[in-house]
Amino acid sequence: MKSSLMKVAIKWTGILSGGMIILTLINYVIGIENIKGGVSIITQLIWWAFLITALAMSNTDYRKNHLNGFMKYGQAFQMGVLVGLFSSVVFSLFYYLFYQFIDFDSFKETMDFATSQIVNNDNIPDEMKEEMIMKMADQTPLSTAIQYLWSSNIINIILMLIIAAFTKKKNNTFEETFKDVM
To answer: Which residues of 41-52 are buried (b: 16+ CB within 10 A; e: fewer)?
Structure first.
């Protein structure tokens, strides 16, 4: 059972990571990524839809092909967390390699834009602005990839708490209901 869990998790890690990397490269090639120093709303919606769909489909795949069509909440949660964890490691590595060695200038442009947004925001107190600007100056592709790694896993856990509730399927067969009696 554990080997099938890992096989399905690795399969869906490849699908999710590959899809996220392809989306990133498409955005990069057509220039969407640096619209106002960040990612467009449409791109974000596509990412969220792809992430949620891939996590839900990994659970469905595991349930249908390895658990005889039934899955407990904990099994669904575990599958999604594994896929999310492995995918965030792969994507963080891609992010680091891409922005450290392929297009560091794009990374700097994004950091410069974020810094200018902080400077021009009148709602942020001056003392806090200075602190935030110093933190932005310390950002590197590696530190940003590490931040992505932990923040994406927190988001993944929250998503899986919800997705697992929809992808679990209780075994209501006669045999399962009365297994302790028989």
So the answer is: eebeebbeebbe
Q: What is the pTM of this model?
A: 0.82
Phi, psi of 38 (to 5 degrees): -150, -165
The pLDDT tens digits for 56-87 are 999 999 999 999 899 999 999 999 999 999 99
Three-state helix/strand/coil letters over the chain: CHHHHHHHHHHHHHHHHHHHHHHHHHHHHHCCCCECCECCHHHHHHHHHHHHHHHHHHHHHHHHHHCCCCECHHHHHHHHHHHHHHHHHHHHHHHHHHHHHHCHHHHHHHHHHHHHHHHCCCCCCHHHHHHHHHHHHCCCHHHHHHHHHHHHHHHHHHHHHHHHHHHCECCCCHHHHCCCCC
CA distance 5 to 78: 9
